Amino acid sequence: MYTHRIAIIYEDDAILVVNKGPGIEVDTPRGGTEPNNIVTILPDHFPFLKGKTLIPVHRIDKFTSGIVVLAKTKEDAAALEEQFRKRKVEKAYHAIVTGTVRIPRNSIIRPIERDPREPKKFAVVSSGRPAVTHYQVERKLRGHTLVKLYPKTGRTHQLRVHMSYIGHPIAGDRVYSRNARDYPLEGFALLAKRIKFEHPRTKKEMTFEVEYPADFKQLIAMLSDGPRHETKRVEPSAPFPHSNRKPKGFPPKKGGKKTGRKRIARPDRVHRNDSRRNKHSH
């Protein structure tokens, strides 16, 4: 049960900037209707928007909280969408991920497309579309890490897929993580926290930022001072790192202890030899 929390951050004749809670779809799914679509919910909460044109110019996942920008005319929408296409919009997300992220700042540069084994999911696949995520560790928690995420591309589920790929899935993500139901969250521990773009009419630089929602704060408090929250670390599907930088001591030296486990070839696996040979091709 979701309360459909939504608040207006800014509004003028051209744009509407809102802070949405989990459970609200930004886009209507293909081939169906979505009663909890942001465009239908907004007039219910704010009667002065009834009959107004509202066009989302980007999207965040249904169970992700945070900032969404909507345009009020097709012309304003086209101008804003062009900024997104040209990657002129700066976006920052905050997330609580499972496990301790060892490298304080790094980039995940791996292509993404639909998972060939599970078409409803997305995965890192060598034939996929280029995807780039920069991250920075904000704070280490008990068995978890608070990170800042800076997507430079906008692939579907990009942040969720990339963080799961390096073995640190987002807490509460029921698709790309384990033990998601163990967290006191309505959605994912993923927040679209900050955005910066150019106003489509005035050309003025606009910056908006939101606070952590209550359940996000509660989880941070629980993982900081409360009893240890045991969550198994999900093994990455490919060796770390995911940029040209290599962490100290990786890969392990030859002659180490053998585990006896067989390596199974998978379509989304990038082998160490390949990553070494192509380390300058990212």
Structure, explained:
The chain has helices at about 40-45, 75-85, 160-165, 215-225, 270-275, and strands at about 5-10, 15-20, 55, 65-70, 90-100, 105-110, 110-115, 120-125, 130-140, 145-150, 190-200, 205-210. The protein has about 280 residues and is α+β, with helices and mostly antiparallel strands.
Q: What integer is the average pLDDT?
A: 82
Total count of strands? 12
Number of contiguous helices: 5
Can you tell me the number of structural domains? 1
List low-pLDDT spans. 227-282
Give the overall shape, derived from the CA principal axes. globular
The CATH architecture category equals: 2-Layer Sandwich
Helix-strand layout with pairing:
Elements: E1 6-11, E2 15-20, H1 38-45, E3 55-56, E4 65-71, H2 74-85, E5 90-98, E6 105-109, E7 112-114, E8 122-124, E9 132-141, E10 144-151, H3 158-165, E11 190-198, E12 205-209, H4 214-225, H5 272-277
Parallel strand pairs: 4-11
Antiparallel strand pairs: 1-2, 2-4, 3-4, 5-10, 5-11, 6-9, 7-8, 9-10, 11-12
What does this entry show, briefly?
By secondary structure, the chain is an alpha+beta fold. The protein is 16% helix and 26% strand.
Jot down its keywords:
10-stranded mixed sheet, 282 residues, two-stranded antiparallel ribbon, disordered C terminus, alpha+beta
